[in-house]
């Protein structure tokens, strides 16, 4: 393609063409070999560089998890004398796509010690957090929900600024204040939760919505303070089982059980061996209606 169709190839570089022409030694296409991409990036980090590499779709990273783990292990193995910066961009999430582009590996990454797991849900957070991730001396798994790329309602002017804090200090953002129930989510499900909260407000139900923009290390203080205030908790996630929400439920049961006034039942995606065909995908993940129904049920229960 480079020889016979150079113009077509240029159009396939995901918008990086101008930068690639300006900095050909810093921006380049990699072979479709995820273990090699991460392994080479690990070597570049050891050599003192700050690699930023993209998996195109998060599901492709599965074959490179061992190399990802080395980003977290090696600094500890060398008594923190070795710094291994790096950013892995991971577009994820269910949607109107073919089934093998509909994965979410957030739970797997949250269990890898020594790395930061980030998941911004607004344009400004995306800018600030990606900048901070690049400046960090720690490895950052940077999850980006595919649907948010094209969600017109999220358009906003970006304030271009240098990082004001370390990436792990971004913590949990209180996206909406409330008194009756705490709803925690991330990615596309955060916006479904906010929309459901607006509908519930018409019936006098006040929801506090938490944006879990930093999955690991988890900002436990903000989460527990909110739950102790509202007494009810609902986590909304796309994964149908074994997701990050189960960890949140366990944490609250250990640290704030005496404040809980209703059962903690995560709202999950519909159990399925793999993501359904495009025309059925919207029934696979929690939507506004399901969130409203679950919140109303928890408000009734004591």
TrEMBL record:
<keyword id="KW-0560">Oxidoreductase</keyword>
<dbReference type="InterPro" id="IPR033248">
    <property type="entry name" value="Transketolase_C"/>
</dbReference>
<dbReference type="InterPro" id="IPR029061">
    <property type="entry name" value="THDP-binding"/>
</dbReference>
<protein>
    <submittedName>
        <fullName>Alpha-ketoacid dehydrogenase subunit beta</fullName>
    </submittedName>
</protein>
<dbReference type="InterPro" id="IPR005475">
    <property type="entry name" value="Transketolase-like_Pyr-bd"/>
</dbReference>
<dbReference type="GO" id="GO:0016491">
    <property type="term" value="F:oxidoreductase activity"/>
</dbReference>
<dbReference type="InterPro" id="IPR009014">
    <property type="entry name" value="Transketo_C/PFOR_II"/>
</dbReference>
<keyword id="KW-0786">Thiamine pyrophosphate</keyword>
<feature type="domain" description="Transketolase-like pyrimidine-binding">
    <location>
        <begin position="1"/>
        <end position="151"/>
    </location>
</feature>
<dbReference type="Pfam" id="PF02779">
    <property type="entry name" value="Transket_pyr"/>
</dbReference>
<dbReference type="Pfam" id="PF02780">
    <property type="entry name" value="Transketolase_C"/>
</dbReference>
């Amino acid at each position: 393609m480079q020889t016979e169709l150079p113009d077509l190839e240029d159009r396939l570089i995901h918008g990086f063409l101008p930068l690639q022409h300006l900095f050909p030694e810093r921006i380049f296409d990699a072979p479709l070999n995820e273990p090699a991409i991460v392994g080479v990036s690990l070597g570049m980090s050891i050599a003192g560089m700050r690699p930023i590499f993209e998996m195109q779709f998060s599901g492709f990273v599965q074959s490179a998890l061992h190399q990802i783990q080395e980003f977290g292990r090696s600094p500890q193995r060398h008594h923190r004398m070795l710094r291994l910066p790096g950013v892995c961009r991971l577009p994820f999430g269910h949607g109107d796509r073919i089934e093998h582009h509909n994965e979410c590996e957030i739970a797997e990454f949250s269990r890898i010690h020594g790395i930061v797991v980030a998941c911004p849900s607004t344009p400004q957070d995306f800018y600030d957090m990606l900048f901070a991730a690049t400046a960090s001396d720690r490895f950052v798994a940077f999850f980006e929900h595919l649907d948010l790329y094209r969600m017109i309602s999220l358009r906003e002017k970006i304030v271009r600024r240098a990082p004001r804090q370390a990436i792990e200090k971004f913590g949990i953002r209180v996206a909406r204040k409330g008194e009756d129930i705490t709803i925690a989510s991330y990615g596309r499900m955060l916006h479904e939760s906010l929309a459901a909260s607006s509908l519930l407000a018409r019936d006098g139900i006040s929801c506090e919505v938490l944006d879990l923009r930093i999955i690991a290390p988890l900002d436990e203080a903000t989460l527990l303070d909110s739950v102790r205030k509202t007494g009810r908790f609902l986590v909304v996630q796309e994964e149908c089982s074994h997701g990050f929400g189960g960890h949140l439920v366990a944490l609250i049961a250990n640290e704030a059980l005496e404040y809980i006034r209703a059962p903690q039942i995560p709202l999950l995606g519909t159990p399925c061996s793999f993501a359904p065909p495009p025309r059925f995908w919207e029934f696979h993940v929690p939507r506004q209606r399901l969130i409203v129904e679950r919140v109303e049920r928890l408000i009734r229960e004591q």
